[in-house]
Prior knowledge:
The protein contains 13 helices and 21 strands. With 468 residues, it is of the alpha+beta class. It folds into three domains: 26-216, SGNH hydrolase (Rossmann fold, 3-Layer(aba) Sandwich); 220-271, Type 1 dockerin domain (Orthogonal Bundle); 279-462, Jelly Rolls (Sandwich). The strands form three sheets. Strands 6, 9, 10, 12, 17, 18, 19 and 21 form an eight-stranded antiparallel beta sheet that branches. Strands 7-8-11-20-13-14-15-16 form an eight-stranded antiparallel beta sheet, with no helix packed on it. A five-stranded parallel beta sheet has the order 2-1-3-4-5, with helices on both faces.
Amino acid sequence: MKKAISLVLVLAFIIGLSPSVAVAKLVACVGDSDTYGYGLPDRAYNCYPAQLERLLRQLDSHWETRNFGVSGATLLRKGNKPYVVQNAYNRALACEPDVVVILLGWNDSLPNNWMHKDDFIPDFLTLIDAFAQLPSQPKIYICYPIPESFSPWHSSRVIRDEVIPLLSQLPTHRDVQVVDLYAPLEESRPLFQPDGIHLNIEGTRLIAEIVAAFITGVRANPDFNSDGIVDSADICLMVNHWHTDEPAYDIAPPPFGDGIVDVQDLIVLAEYLFEEPGLVAYWKLDETEGMAAHDSAGTCDGTIVGNPAWQPEGGMVDGTLQLDGIDDYVSTPFVLNPADGKFSVFAWIKGGAPGQVILSQNAGARWLCADPSEGNLMTELKGSGRDAAELLSQTIVTDGNWHRIGLVWDDSNRTLYVDDVVVAEDEQANLEGSDNGLYIGTGKAMEQGSFFSGLIDDVRIYNRAVTP
């Protein structure tokens, strides 16, 4: 008990001193083929910058990454393909990023390029200065090149013994941070493509995880109990594992922690306290007038259609929106594609009738609805395989009482919740995808009988699996 009280006092002190979570949002990924994603299936989705964006957005939905990788590019200006003369370089500068991640040096280590090694540090400083002088004043990370121990055409000796020692000097010349990608991959042949040179999907994910840890300062999501918010419950979980080597709570320093749960981890936890990691859309529906339902988490403001009535004091959480069951609904822009990975959606409802819909995706599927027979909660969002099926609970949600309903997808399981209790779950191989916007209060095609008659409040969507 004394330990817990002492740590809470320390945490209170830390909260007063620690900076808030970084506000930088745009990441420019500069590099060669390992950044570009050479040889990867569905490169745009599986390259490390794309995977990095998904990881960052699990903490804050405002993060964005852009891929400025060029296969074969060299840092050296006298190399066979200098990065600074490529269009990608100019586009990277023009976007004025908040963070720059530079992964160059592998192609420089080839004999025909490394003959100019005396220019390596001067050329790198010139590149760093070009980004550092931007109005956005980005934070700059310099990555060690990945090893090439598995390539029959090239040796990692130059990278290990010459390139990396030079890169390690850069922080003494400029305000940059070095990220070691070499050591974690040195004995990891399964993370490479058959050519032994380029990383496969798992390898690019490891790069993304390491870089994400450096950018955010945390190696794992600090919402330890996955309830949607970093709060006192997460503090208690960390306290219960104090001075242990439990990796789930050893969240600092990046990228892999230091083998003990201590004050370093507490400081990072404090920086995320009361944040809601992965909340990509949040319609409070607390407005008192107007034709817009504002998204408090992102930029997906909804448009009011029909003539629903704002109820400033009648909601489960402050105000709410009353729909007439005839032609009222809210239309939102695209939020997420269910086929892309884990997500969760929750909403408070009161009223409704069998067959009516709480949330659907335009021309996609009904995410949350009441079955047409009895008004039990169900989802029609399913996979594409032979065994794909709707998921139906045995819990009525149209009984006139307030209910918090939810659907959680964790990449293999669908789970329906009513009042934070599991009411149905099953396994699916995947989920059908759609890049369209959402409808709050009607079906995917605004079918007759699908319009919701009742109150809808506090609609939240996360890009991760949340356990209420």
